[in-house]
Backbone:
């Protein structure tokens, strides 16, 4: 994974991405007990080109030139299927900006804050998201004031209250 | 009745111990969790092979 993170960091230096942060299953695993996942979800802020289009093409071209192959929606970087996800809404943009800087084997990387991770999963709300929210609530220290602020600003408070009532959690 | 009570006490103890273990696992360093993830992927792959389900690729990483 060290090599994969190095490739991501190189892409920032080269200006292919402005910033990135790990989300999805690996971010959940960072905060909880190890959970089974197969891909590395990477939220990224992309530079806007002259036509003001946001496109992943330059990233894929760069990675394919380096010999990394595409596999469906993933690109396999140093043995890990990576899904590059452009910041497609305000909550992800905010999660990217406020992500925590951490190290993996001395390599700097960024992981979305647990409160943003929870809010994003509440927004996507697939069965596995609901399962992961419960895991996060059970095993992680969550700043509830910060979380509620995020949820209120992004219109997720009602969904959050319904979720808590349904699962009778904290 | 007494046997039932004893059984429930046992289940409760087991459940508390499991929760404690899960919280301990949550506190492991990131690197250690990734190495456990690789083991989980291999176990899942083997189980899929046995049950004839589609196998997912495991990460091919050295570190």
Residues:
């Amino acid at each position: 994974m060290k090599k994969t993170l190095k490739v991501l960091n190189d892409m920032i230096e080269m200006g292919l991405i402005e910033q990135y942060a790990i989300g999805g299953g690996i971010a959940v695993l960072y905060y909880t007990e190890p959970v089974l996942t197969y891909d590395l979800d990477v939220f990224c802020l992309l530079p806007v080109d002259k036509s003001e289009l946001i496109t992943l093409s330059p990233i894929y071209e760069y990675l394919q030139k380096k010999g990394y192959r595409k596999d469906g929606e993933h690109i396999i970087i140093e043995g890990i299927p990576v899904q590059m996800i452009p910041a497609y809404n305000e909550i992800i943009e905010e999660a990217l900006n406020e992500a925590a800087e951490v190290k993996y084997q001395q390599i700097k990387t960024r992981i979305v804050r647990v409160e943003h991770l929870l809010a994003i999963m509440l927004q996507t709300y697939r069965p596995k998201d609901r399962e992961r929210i419960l895991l996060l609530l059970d095993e992680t220290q969550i700043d509830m004031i910060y979380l509620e602020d995020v949820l209120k600003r992004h219109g997720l408070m009602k969904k959050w209250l319904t979720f808590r009532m349904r699962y009778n959690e904290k | 009745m007494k046997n039932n009570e004893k059984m429930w006490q046992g289940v409760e103890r087991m459940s508390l111990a499991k929760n404690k273990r899960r919280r301990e696992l949550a506190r492991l360093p990131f690197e250690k969790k990734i190495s456990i993830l690789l083991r989980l992927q291999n176990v899942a792959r083997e189980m899929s092979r046995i049950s004839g389900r589609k196998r997912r690729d495991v990460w091919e990483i050295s570190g």
The CA atoms of residues 89 and 154 of chain A lie 10 Å apart. Chain A has a mean pLDDT of 93. The two ends of chain A are 34 Å apart (CA to CA). DSSP finds eight helices and seven strands in chain A.
